Amino acid sequence: MAEGILRGWRVLVVEDEFMLAEDLCQELAEAGAVVIGPAQSLERAMELLAVPDGLDAAVLDVNLQGKQVFPVADALLERQVPFVFTTGYDASVFPARFVSMRCCAKPLDMPRLMETLRSAITISPRQ
After folding, report:
1. What element of type H or E holds 42?
2. What does pTM read for this prediction?
């Protein structure tokens, strides 16, 4: 992972698998990101959307303890915050509005995920 490619970006992590969440947070921190979370439930993710300094990006596990993360994704889209989905499921689980969104398959290839997230941030309308 290239150190600093996400320097200063506030990235929300929504992941219910503890070890994966820890690995993801560590990778993001090494890339220079300010990690928000991890949120291991839909309810906690919705709470973290209200962080005072806002969010610059997010990594969203599609399935959180049996609940789909799409309400969080809708809120991020509304705020024009770029995000990347992670999932072990195929594209059939995505509502039509999310079919074209960036997604990384599990098991995660961390360098690929970091590059996908960096790319999403780079083309974000917030830039």
Report:
1. helix 42-48
2. 0.92
